[in-house]
Design goal:
By secondary structure, the chain is mainly alpha-helical. It is built from seven helices and two strands, in the order H-E-E-H-H-H-H-H-H. It has a domain of 122 residues: Glutathione S-transferase Yfyf (Class Pi), Chain A, domain 2 (Up-down Bundle), CATH 1.20.1050.10. The chain is 57% helix and 3% strand. The longest helix is centred in the middle third of the chain and has 29 residues. Bound molecules: glutathione. Glutathione (GSH) binds next to loops.
Length: 193
Amino acid sequence: MLFSTGVEFRNKYVTQEEWPKLKPNKVQYPTGGLPIVSINGKRYYETMSTLRSLAMGIGVYETSDHKGCYVNDIIMDEYNNVFEKSGALIMAQNEEEKKIAFGNFLAAIDRILCIVKMNKVANKWKYAAGNEDLGTGDFCIAALYFNFAKNEAFEASMMVLPVFEKHVELADYYAILQKALRKYLKQRKTLPF
Ligand SMILES: N[C@@H](CCC(=O)N[C@@H](CS)C(=O)NCC(=O)O)C(=O)O
């Protein structure tokens, strides 16, 4: 979102090895978790609250558009649900648990895409929650699409892509996301973890 709106930012990545030493520092990491966004020295946590607040600040979350905000918020809540399911997948203890957790993860992605499709069709929207410009919901969908489905570094991407492709009505929408974020995706680093 920051890249596509031309807001300058710097990513700081933390490796698993570095994290245990950094985590107890409550000034830098107030919740003992990530991600954290630092703006002019003030630190913000909780991904969706931070995303919404940043979006308001740069004018891509129009609070007078109640319907658009509602749908963007639903997508953001459902996005959290996908991440909860990915957490369960990481914690799975054996093959059977992994299989169930992965099925739940795919189902959560499918659910979010059904919501996008239903609203786009009913409202004749170009984007997930409106016609004006990419919104917070679109960036959530893009994060799922480019990190889990179109990312060779994610070993299960071949199983995630069909969930997206199943929604053929969204093919043009994925192409819009791809076009809008092409520049960012080209320059984004492939991380060693
Ligand atoms: N509700 C939080 C969840 C954040 C979260 O789960 N962070 C994980 C990484 S994605 C984390 O910090 N794990 C390391 C730890 O808790 O020590 C948010 O949306 O920002």
